[in-house]
Amino acid sequence: MKIKNLALATAALLGLVGAPATFACSIAAWNGGPMGSPAPGRPSDPSPVARYSGQCGLRAATSGSFVTDNTPTAEATFRARFYVYTGLTSGQAVVYRARNAANVDQITVTYNQGSPGTFSFAIPGATAQTIPANTNAWYAIELNWAAAGTLTATVRGASGQGAAPAESVVNVTGGTSGGAIDTAQLGWVAGTGVASARGIVADAYESRRSTAIGRLCRADANGSNSVTAGDRTAITLELGGTLAAGQPDCNEDGNVSAGDRTCVTNLLAAGATCN
Amino acid sequence: MKTFTFVSVAAILAAFSVSASAGQFEVWSDGAKGANRTVIVSFAGDGHTQDAQADIAFDPGLEFVTANAKVAGSVCAELKGKNMVRVVPPSGAGSALSSKQIDYCAFSFRSRGGKAVAGTGLTVSFTECAGVSGSSNCESNAIDVSEK
Questions:
Q1: pLDDT in tens, B53-67
Q2: DSSP string, A185-218
Q3: What is the secondary structure of B49-100 as a DSSP string?
Q4: Among A224, A240, A268, whose Cβ lies nearest the Cβ of B88?
Q5: How confident is the model at residue A86 (pLDDT cuts 50, 70, 90)?
Q6: Domain-by-domain residue ranges, chain A?
Q7: DSSP assignment, residue A70?
Q8: What residue spans of A146-228 are helical by DSSP H?
Q9: Could B132 and A237 be called an inter-chain contact, meaning their C-beta atoms sit closer than 8 Å?
Q10: Which residues of A touch B130 (CB under 8 A)?
Q11: Chain A partners within 8 Å of B128 (Cβ)
């Protein structure tokens, strides 16, 4: 069962074609509201905000800037998928946190800037596990948590100009059992660090109780759920100012450019499908 | 451009029926006898198409041998394990692809077992012509590779 689908922003889904600049990116669907100063926006805004999918992303330039979803209710199993751009020059950012009704952390996902940096995945009572991650790149993170005290995290991103790298998976086990999830927070939730030009950016959040979510179709710029030559045209149009409806940042570097068109060409030559 | 003496009847007809509504892929065979075939895929734009693609299925009786781009930047590739080849002209990158019929890819096949090629060998299974106004199917025509 799906709990929440909070593409950043839901409002973006209402006007993908034909009216690219006539609506504001919204975080209204986050029923716990914002904390700090998270900034929803588009790449074409005066203060550009990167996005992974659709037209809007959520930028956090300072720690303590995030949005909250209070939809979960004492969930004993919980899955969440989101995309995060690792825009730090130093320090760390808690990019995702899920808590119980007493505001005790049940899941914590932290990006630690470095060369390479890491994502750290923590649950109460267990040793946190890490996965290497580059700075200034998009990553898809899917979490599968259970109240028995386990968390599986699946990460993939920073794909570059060709086929995507293999996904990384870590299992955090032996945690304290009996937890529950009542709230989820996304953005730059906590941690001390210095943002890069784009900052921490989050997009395409979705949560469910038990069903796997999966990644969006990388390089599907026109939103057709396939990778074809037409995606190159959608990227070309975005270079001219018309934002693509799908996932145009093929190389996942946070910037839609001619290099993404080349990336699509490389995928077409390799016979790649959605990956 | 059209360097082959023998082309399919269908291809000839198609050359005179290029519509203004969509770009058109054409698939040409050298019509050679025996076990080997060279197949050329060309494309003519419609004044709007900036990116185009054709995936062409070949008969399991054929074995893919080589793919060569006749225009730099073209994707001419076998889709391994699918009995298909893919043709993607270079992106117009904001400009319409040429309306002239241009040969983009040359593929060579041979008959499995070394027998003479017979029967229909190629089918265009997917096309896309994309421009500012969106994407649609391209026009296309395949050939019977046993034809001259």
A1: 999 999 888 899 999
A2: EEEEEE--EEEEEEEEEEEEEEEESSS------T
A3: -SEEEEEEEE-TTEEEEEEEESSTT-EEEEETTTTEEEEEPPP-TTSPPPSS
A4: A268
A5: very high
A6: 2-208, 217-275
A7: -
A8: none
A9: yes
A10: 222, 228-230, 232-234
A11: 228-230
Nearest 5 degrees, angle CA A192-CA A194-CA A198? 125
- DSSP-assigned letter for residue B11: H
Taking the Cβ of residue A232 and every Cβ of chain B, the question of whether any pair is shorter than 8 Å is answered with yes
Strand partners, A157: A139
**Lowest mean per-residue pLDDT among A110-114, A269-273, B68-72, B102-106:** A269-273
A237 contacts in chain B (CB < 8 Å): 132
B8 vs B37, more confident: B37
pLDDT tens-digit series, residues A178-232: 999 999 999 999 999 999 999 999 999 999 999 999 999 999 999 999 999 999 9
Distance from chain centroid for Cα A206 = 9
Crossing angle for the helix pair A258-269 and A229-239, to the nearest 10 degrees: 180
Residue A143 contacts B, CB cutoff 8 Å: no
- Secondary structure class of A224 (helix, strand, coil): coil
The two tokens of residue A234 are 């959608």
- Domains of chain B by start residue, with CATH: 2-12+22-147 (2.60.40.680)
What pLDDT sits at residue B117? 65
Interface of B with A in 23-52 (CB under 8 A): 50-52
> In chain B, which residue ranges form alpha helices assigned H by DSSP?
9-15
DSSP structure class, residue A11: G
Q: Is the ipTM of this complex over 0.95?
A: no
**Hey, is the C-beta of B131 within 8 angstroms of any chain A C-beta?**
yes
Task: Tell me the CA end-to-end span of chain A in Å, nearest whole number.
Answer: 24
Chain A interface test: which of B46, B49, B71, B75 (most A C-beta within 10 Å): B75
**pTM (2 decimals)?**
0.84
CB contact under 8 A, B135 and A222: yes
Q: How many CB atoms lie within 10 A of CB B9?
A: 11
A2-208 fold: Jelly Rolls (2.60.120)
